[in-house]
Design a protein that fits this description.
Blueprint: E1 4-5, E2 9-14, E3 17-22, E4 28-31, H1 33-43, H2 48-58, H3 63-79, E5 83-84
Antiparallel strand pairs: 1-5, 2-3, 3-4
Helix pairs in contact: 1-2, 2-3
Length: 85
């Protein structure tokens, strides 16, 4: 899966993770450090399974939970119109 931010969505690192701004609507979303870690990997061309492995390597989480979290994040970003696949 190739993931990229939709045109009109900007991304900025924060002290707590990443902030995403939809410049068209003025709405913004803040991702915590773990969500930011996953998003950065996916935007660099990584796969969902690579994101799962990255989470299990760096966080105290099992593969099934990490897989659910990655899937949930991608679905939320997609349904919010922030990303394109």
């Amino acid at each position: 899966m190739t993931l990229k931010l939709r045109t009109g969505v900007s991304c900025a690192d924060t002290d707590y993770g990443i902030a995403l701004l939809d410049e068209d609507s003025g709405e913004y979303w803040e991702l915590n450090p773990t969500g930011a870690q996953v998003l950065r990997l996916l935007l660099r061309g990584g796969t969902s399974e690579q994101a799962v492995r990255d989470l299990t390597d760096t966080c105290d989480v099992d593969a099934e939970s990490a897989r659910d979290d990655v899937r949930g994040l991608v679905e939320a970003l997609d349904s919010s119109g922030l990303v394109e696949r």
